[in-house]
Specification:
Elements lengths: L1 H20 L2 H19 L2 E2 L8 E2 L1 H12 L3 H14 L12 H4 L4 H20 L6 H30 L7 H8 L4 H18 L21
Antiparallel strand pairs: 1-2
Helix pairs in contact: 2-3, 2-4, 3-4, 3-6, 3-9, 4-6, 6-7, 7-9
Amino acid sequence: MAIAISRINQSKLEAYRWRYELSVPYKLALCLGMAALTGLLAQAKVPLPWTPVPITGQTFAVLLAGVLLGKWWGGVSMAVYAGLGAAGLPWFQNFSGGLAYMAGPTGGYIIGFIFAALFLGYFTDKYVRSRSFFSMLGLMLAANFILIYVPGLLQLGLWLDMVKGQPATFSGLMMMGAIPFIAGDVTKAVIAALIARGVTPKAAYGREVDADKWSQWRLP
């Protein structure tokens, strides 16, 4: 059993070292693949009658993008998703695309995807200790509820005011763009953190600043 665990850990380390050392064209190819996965999960949605913002599976891919692709490249993958979608590639929800969609009620959330993936990729590549379950869960919840929700709610509020002519109160905006999604987003973050805990190596593969200190931490 100990030998099998050691081999698994070594395989994870080699996989992440391979990812870290890839050339730019290969990293861009991985970014395109993660963007495509995000577009696929965007089609898994549950519309809500009182808001133009549906429940989707996109954020699950966003939370894993930084973990799997690392510093900068997780964010690049979401920039590819947003940029190609804005250019007309139909991989937003309902197989939509174009600038009009990005200017709509949910465009701010997509912009937030970029910041969230950058944030998680930075910590994944910079700190070995960030790869524990509880550390990653905390980072994912912060990325989701601050870096995605804030630009999402800001644009939703502007859209309601300028396009619909229906200025929303703070409580009304929260009911339309945040509160109905909290339980689902927490669930997705827990699952994503479990996956991150399972696939990330607990040893340095790049230039982690805590390579010699992480073992002093006891978080699982």
